[in-house]
Amino acid sequence: NAGVTQTPKFQVLKTGQSMTLQCAQDMNHNSMYWYRQDPGMGLRLIYYSASEGTTDKGEVPNGYNVSRLNKREFSLRLESAAPSQTSVYFCASSEWAQVQETQYFGPGTRLLVL
Amino acid sequence: AQSVAQPEDQVNVAEGNPLTVKCTYSVSGNPYLFWYVQYPNRGLQFLLKYITGDNLVKGSYGFEAEFNKSQTSFHLKKPSALVSDSALYFCAVRDMYNFNKFYFGSGTKLNVKP
Questions:
Q1: Which one of A20, A37, B4, B56 is at 20 to 30 Å from B36 when CA atoms are compared?
Q2: Contact B100 A100 (CB under 8 A)
Q3: Is CATH 3.40.640.10 correct for B3-8+15-100?
Q4: Could you report the per-residue pLDDT of A53-69, keeping only the tens digit for each?
């Protein structure tokens, strides 16, 4: 039982390049999330998916796209990376129907955009 | 709108002393509150939660939190700090109108000195 896994762990991009961050969970959760973490700003929600086939915008969706490939996998794509997207990205999952359920986080992807 | 605030960027405490990490919330209705801990280069880990019931909630690693409705606070506490407790701590509130959304505080860095 691996929980939430993310790939890659670290990535350097040049401005304008594209990349996809991968996330998978093995807890059979319906909901999955992408956050970015910046110093002094906590975690900010980029996109979330309440169930397979649905996605919704969070607080900071501009410059990102997501795909809920199936119940296990939720990917985040940067089409044209910008230095402002330098951040640590976390994927999480949760069982949304249970109010007492917490979120489970992956180990993060550190992205540097030059 | 739902939100949480962590008024202290950093808390310093000596090993063996009690520690408190502060969190205040702003929600309409009953809050669903969580504490998470983040060790360096790791994802967030769940510590404890308040959904309903007793105002004193016990969690992992000897941590507890006191829910105070009149002061809209949910402070994290531990009677005797360990050096290994040094980490970044986040308070979060679940959106009661959309269980898929969590709002995080900016984080508090806890430094426990030997």
A1: A20
A2: no
A3: no
A4: 899 999 999 999 999 98
DSSP per-residue letters across chain A: ---EEEE-SEEEE-TT--EEEEEEESS--SEEEEEEE-TTS-EEEEEEESSTT--EE-S--TTEEEEE-SSSBEEEEESS--GGG-EEEEEEEE-TT-TT---EE---EEEEE-
Q: Report pLDDT digits (tens) over B57-104.
A: 999 999 999 999 999 999 999 999 999 999 999 999 988 888 888 899
Q: What value does the mean pLDDT of chain B take?
A: 93
Across the interface, whether the CB atoms of A99 and B94 are under 8 A apart is answered: yes
Q: B35 at the A interface (CB within 8 A)? A: no
Chain B residue with minimum CA distance to A101: B49
With 80 as the cut, is the pLDDT of residue A109 above it?
Answer: yes
Q: Who among A90, A96, A108 is closest to B99 (CB)?
A: A96
Per-residue pLDDT for A97 more than 80?
no
Report domain extents, chain B: 3-8+15-100
